[in-house]
Amino acid sequence: MSVLFPWLFWAIILVLVSGVFLWPQIKGRKAKKDKHQGFLKPTPLFNQEFSRELSIPAAQKPSAQPSEAELPHSYGVNRMILMARDPHWLFAYWEVTATKQDEFTSNYGPEAWSTTHPVLRVYDITGINFNGDNALGFTDIHISENIDNWYVHVGEPDRTFCIDLGRMFPDGRFITLLRSNIVTTPRASLSDRLDEEWMWIEGLYRSMGRFQYGTSSPMIIEELALRAGVLPLGISSPGFNQKD
Questions:
Q1: Does residue 88 share a domain with residue 148?
Q2: 85-106 mean pLDDT
Q3: Range of 93's domain?
Q4: Residue 68: what pLDDT?
Q5: Are residues 179 and 214 in the same domain?
Q6: CB 3.0–4.6 Å: which of 80, 99, 170, 238 could bond 94 by disulfide?
Q7: How many CB atoms lie within 10 A of CB 45?
Q8: Are 120 and 176 within one domain?
Q9: Tens digit of pLDDT for each residue in 65-91?
């Protein structure tokens, strides 16, 4: 017992001394470990900042798409446009500016505009050089104020028309404000105009298979002329007479 006591004493002293020197290092390592675990600590899924972080700033929110530009209702120009829709119908649209209205009232009196009403006068000018007074006939269509377009039923295929927009007084006087362009309605049937001078070409096409590729047109015409006697020799194109 007396032998082990000194060794035990010195062992305890060594442990205490080592603990004194090693304790700062152990404490520093423990602090670093706690700090590292603090960085790795998961963020709570729900907190008071969560909704704010998801909100989109007003400057970044997508702005509403601008609406498409619309065509202006008027252009400030006095005009009247006439179109043939089909063999039986015309379509007209127009614009009367305030300047034209002021001109009318200055010529016919301040009450002239309010005491008259708008009228479309449709002229049939087929085959003539229209000067405003020599139409084959006309039809008046009484329309309402503030109307700027109208479908006109003429029921006349292959005819030429012109339309005046004007104001009519109670006594029947008609004053023209605007005059349209001239249009012709299309035919409602096949054309009856035949060019007999070119009818022989059908026979030419039917006989094309009997000639070899590369044969020139004058040679074909000459061959046809010799066989059928349709054209005199030497003619290179139908419709032209040979000079003497």
A1: yes
A2: 96
A3: 79-184
A4: 72
A5: no
A6: 80
A7: 6
A8: yes
A9: 666 777 666 778 999 999 999 999 999
Tell me if 214 is assigned to some domain: yes
Q: Is residue 69 part of a domain?
A: no
Same domain, 129 and 224: no
CATH number for the domain harbouring residue 87 = 2.60.40.10
Q: Contact, 231 vs 199, CB < 8 A?
A: no
The total number of structural domains that make up the chain: 2
- Inter-CA distances, 236 with 196, 203, 208, 209, 212, Å: 18, 16, 17, 21, 20
Task: Check whether residue 97 and residue 171 sit in a common domain.
Answer: yes
Q: How confident is the model at residue 243 (pLDDT cuts 50, 70, 90)?
A: very low
Contact 174, 141 (CB under 8 A): no
Using DSSP's 3-state secondary structure scheme, residue 231 falls into: coil
Residue 167's Cβ-count burial label (10 Å; 0-12, 13-18, 19+) is: buried
Would you say 238 and 196 are in contact if contact means Cβ atoms under 8 Å apart? Answer: no
The pLDDT tens digits of the residues spanning 188-232 come to: 887 666 665 555 555 555 655 555 544 455 555 566 566 655 545
